[in-house]
Write a structure and sequence with these properties.
404 residues, Urease, subunit C, domain 1, 2 domains, seven-stranded mixed β-sheet, 13 helices, 16 strands, 25% strand, metal ion binding, Deacetylase_Atu3266-like
């Protein structure tokens, strides 16, 4: 290290942005602020106006919003390791997302590849849920990762978790009849037992029964996650069954996390609109983005956030469910992010009026009233230009067999 470096300690200055999603700090800071970031990637200070020193790079926010970095809790980015995963740079920093969480693409047999070939080379912060099935989603929906107990190696799962606790944030199980056939609720119970032993939460994909959505909820506890909470599948929709709807409310009240997990077959405008109208808000907003869902109905994180906003979810709640709350769920909470010494992790975005036509996973169209337009992402002392995904005019619908 050069101890005689006379360069300024300042590296980046974000000018004229409106903070949102930082809790009470956002309310205390009226109007626009500037944020000064050091060469070590830490916030030096915030103020109504900061004059940069020489050679400091400046981002002109032009009164756009500044939020904690967006976190996508459900992605598939084990590119080359599964037949559905995409490269993290496609759905990460270039789309306003600073943290990506892979939701079970890898099992214990191939997690080392996800770590060494993807995570360690990515610019994004990446964490992962480890699939209960040893092979993960190598051939998603073509070769089930959970055909029976022979698909699960408990000792190797424990060893993999212990060797990778810096990255593994939970266990993932797809509780769907199309995956587990007649195994019913057993994989969820096994995952929950392992989660208790390893002190990790469990993320459960709910879909086509069996098991029943009801039984999954009864098995999970505080900190565990239901992903695809607003799916519209027969036998799995919370609109079809008043008892199930009440159970969802009760489960959320006792700490079960309700995650959107849009995906190619797992998000219904009708279900989400009804839930939001009854004040049942998702705890986290995520995309379940992968090679099949992205060009169909998902597109990206900002579009998924825009859908929830358009359906009536309050702006502050959308931001929290897309940034700070997911980080809490994976037990990697953001610090007081605008305070001196905090690592810079921000998304700069505009919220623009729109009449963009989007679709849910069932192909139902809806016009958005406003869209989130990411402009920059900031991670440490570096920044990236960001934008929304622009699909082809007639992007093909997802044809993923209805299971993801």
């Amino acid at each position: 290290m050069n101890t005689h470096n006379t360069q300024s300690e300042e590296a980046l200055l974000i000018k004229a942005v409106r903070p949102i999603g930082f809790g009470p700090v956002s309310n205390a800071l009226n109007g626009c602020i500037d944020v000064l970031i050091g060469r070590n990637g830490q916030v030096i200070r915030t103020a109504a106006e900061i004059r940069p020193e020489k050679d400091v790079e400046v981002i002109n926010g032009n009164r756009c919003w500044l939020s904690p970095g967006w976190t996508d809790l459900h992605t598939h980015i084990w590119y080359g390791g599964t037949d559905i995963s995409i490269r993290p740079e496609i759905c990460g920093l270039s789309r306003g997302v600073t943290t990506l969480v892979d939701a079970g693409s890898a099992g214990e047999a191939n997690f080392h590849g996800l770590r060494e070939l993807i995570i360690e080379h990515a610019s994004e912060d990446i964490f992962a849920f480890l699939n209960l099935g040893s092979i993960g989603l190598v051939a998603c929906n073509r070769v089930s990762e959970l055909t029976g107990l022979a698909s699960v190696d408990i000792d190797r799962i424990a060893a993999t978790v212990e060797a990778n606790r810096d990255l593994i944030v939970g266990l993932k199980v797809r509780a769907s009849g199309t995956i587990t056939a007649g195994w019913d609720i057993a994989p969820v119970k096994l995952a929950k037992k392992l989660g208790r032993i390893l002190k990790l939460p469990v993320m459960v994909h709910v879909g086509e029964p069996l098991p029943l959505y009801d039984d999954v909820l009864k098995t999970l506890g505080e900190g565990d996650i239901i992903t695809h909470c607003f799916n519209g599948k027969i036998g799995g929709s919370i609109l079809e069954d008043e008892e199930l709807y009440r159970l969802v409310e009760e489960s959320q009240q006792r700490g079960v996390v309700m995650d959107v997990g849009h995906g190619g077959a797992s998000f219904s405008f009708e279900v989400a609109r009804a839930a939001l109208s009854n004040k049942l808000l998702p705890d986290t907003i995520s995309t379940d983005i992968h090679k099949r869902s992205m060009p169909g109905s998902v597109w990206d994180m900002s579009t998924t956030m825009s859908k929830l906003l358009s359906l009536g979810m309050p702006l502050e709640d959308v931001i929290r469910a897309s940034s700070t709350r997911p980080r809490e769920v994976i037990r990697r909470p953001y610090p007081a992010m605008l305070e001196q010494g905090a690592r810079a992790n921000f998304t700069l975005f505009e919220l623009n009026d729109s009449d963009l036509i989007v679709r849910d996973s069932k192909g139902v169209p809806s016009a958005l009233k406003q869209v989130f337009d990411p402009r920059f992402t900031v991670l440490g002392a570096q920044h990236w230009t960001a934008s929304r995904y622009q699909p082809a005019e007639h992007a093909p619908r997802c044809t993923c067999g209805g299971h993801v």
